[in-house]
Write a structure and sequence with these properties.
Layout: H1 2-34, E1 45-50, H2 56-64, E2 69-71, H3 88-92, E3 99-104, H4 110-118, E4 123-127, H5 130-142, H6 150-155, H7 158-186, E5 191-195, H8 196-201, H9 203-213, H10 220-235, H11 240-244, H12 265-274, H13 276-281
Parallel strand pairs: 1-3, 1-4, 2-3, 4-5
Length: 290
Amino acid sequence: MKNIIYNFFMPYQNVAFKTKVLIKTWIQRTLATVFLIKTHYPHRLVFIAGLPKSGTTWLENLMGAIPGYRRLVCYDLNNSLFEHKLDSAVVEVLPSRGNFFTKTHVEASMEGVSALRRCGIPTVIMVRDLRDQCVSRFFHVLNDPMHRHHKLYSLGERSDAFSHCVKITIDEYSLWVDNWLKAAEIDHDSFLVVRYEDMYSDPKKEFNRVLTHFDIKLTEGTVDNILNAISKSSLKGRNVAERLKTHKNTLRKGGSGDWKNHLSVEDIKSFKLKANHQLIKLGYESDADW
């Protein structure tokens, strides 16, 4: 019965979604024209493709604090971004004026990568040590009742649930990273790889790398102000120690090296078998002896 109801209303849901997208993009383009929004920087659009739980929201907030940059309301009629696919229309349909950025978790499909290169859109790829990303994802799912794996992780045996998370990480996210790394190797002028760990240890240095890649020139004082403003905003008036005590704060798990406290012997074997090449390529390990 549920399937019958779902199939009946699906066409109407699609129409409603597409109408919503069209209205939002029309408003954005109209505002850009009516208010004569200026174009301050060389690239009309800059793109962030991030591994989930790799600091992409942090970088998104930093970009949003740059004077003259706005989040793009994406022309995505097929809702491809929700499925982590990049429809070329997303990067081709832009307002007539202004500078924009967008943050996604899209995979490096042939169509998506080709569209970014063809349109000359500089892209930052955010990655992370998959072992820590796995831990962070696990606790994120535990804290999200709406997630498809929440019941499995919260009601099942902890070891079985965590091993399932390891499998998801290796089968899906490892491939995600591998494909984006290939794109960056082929065209390093278009694609810049940023490691979460480097962003965390030296945010100013990594943020400046991103700015250089996007051809954005800011004074040192402006960069410092942006970093400080976003840091204060994310802390919400509390220090880090207090944030980590928050029950639903997923940053309390999955910090650099936290995988050592959670991965079983079998989990480690799985990573070594299928993802060790990536850990070495990204500089997290030098060999398989870890």
